[in-house]
Design brief:
The chain is an alpha+beta fold. It is 38% helix and 12% strand. The chain has one domain. A hairpin with a 7-residue loop joins strand 3 and strand 4. It binds zinc ion (ZN).
């Protein structure tokens, strides 16, 4: 039987400075910087012309649906 590792490695997002334990997203800016999933969503929304103000509203909605703050 194999043991499953459930320890999450914490990373600090260079974009917003948040400490996160979720799998990182790759920044679209250079394709190699690891950023938090929220910033990944922000960059994706930004690329389709969504304003920062709207981005935060969308993120809040995503967080609510995932049950975190
Ligand atoms: Zn971030």
């Amino acid at each position: 039987m194999k043991e499953r590792c459930t320890i999450f490695r914490l990373s600090v997002c260079p974009r917003c400075g948040r400490t996160y334990g979720e799998p990182p997203a790759l920044s679209r800016v250079d394709g190699q910087t690891r950023i938090c999933p929220d910033c990944g969503t922000r960059e994706a929304l930004d690329s389709i012309g969504v304003k920062p103000e709207e981005q935060e509203k969308i993120l809040a909605t995503i967080h609510r649906s995932m049950g975190r703050f």
